């Protein structure tokens, strides 16, 4: 049985990527011996951490990884997030020990200061490549990353070095969608090293047959997720006794909760509770302003026979049947309003949910994903 050393830097607030990594670990354990190396973003020595930021190297991470390689002797290293404690040191250590390396890109951090790709960083309606790290017209001093010149500079240095690694190191790059594969091709990354490998959605629960009476969103409560626009459009709709529930936390949580008293803000819940809310909902919705990869909320909804309303951006549509009825043109809120009003037809919603479930079962088939991973790692 081949050995996989899976490396992932967890986020401070558990999100879709952490959930996806956990589910992929369970998937790979069916065919491989897997050792998991988690890093956590706890800062105890600020001067040392600042040096790590500037150099994009981390001696502590290097020591942890070298010990794991020497003890476990992996055949394959499978890297996910490296920001920021793990650092780009990971790739230099793996190269030093000549470990075959696969990297899964869940976002665009290598090419965007805040991996959002939104015009003027959320101030406009079209996607933004103005701060694209590979272009000469990037504007470093526009406070792109949490409204801080200093952090913007640090993240740009990280992104530039990350992109150099993607382009020059002998690693295989796994992306969630064909959209992302084409994007890397435009940046000059060799087609031969990029493979589409979506996240597995592990779900043993079944949708509960109840009279669904709410629409729901689950995720980060922040401006780039378009929640203000979502709520405003929902309040303008003609829904019949269908409430909106919002699960999650973020910088806009208190502000939105105080402003919109007719919307149910439930805060952060554990994953099983979220799944229960999804399974009993009429539909889930996202109004994201980003290039998205594979939103876990939407895929988990499909696995529970619950339909989704989503903007046509990034690779989201790849996880739904062709001609899907509830997608809307991104930033076109009149189109969004039309799709929300369709929720009144509950029979149609039920049929759509079952269609999504059947599509996802085929697209994210467990056996085929395991086989595809073996094929990629053996090439």
Present the secondary structure layout.
Elements: E1 3-9, H1 16-28, E2 33-39, H2 46-55, H3 59-72, E3 76-79, H4 89-96, E4 100-105, H5 149-168, E5 172-175, H6 178-186, E6 194-196, E7 214-218, H7 227-235, E8 243-247, H8 253-259, E9 264-267, H9 271-279, E10 283-285, H10 296-303, E11 308-311, E12 327-328, H11 333-341, H12 346-363, H13 366-378
Parallel strand pairs: 1-2, 1-3, 3-4, 4-5, 5-6, 7-8, 7-10, 8-9, 10-11, 11-12
Helix pairs in contact: 7-11, 10-12
Please compute the radius of gyration using only Cα atoms.
21 Å
**Strand order in the sheet with the most strands:** 2-1-3-4-5-6
At the fold tier of CATH, the topology name of the largest domain is: Rossmann fold
- The overall strand count is 12
CATH class of the largest domain: Alpha Beta
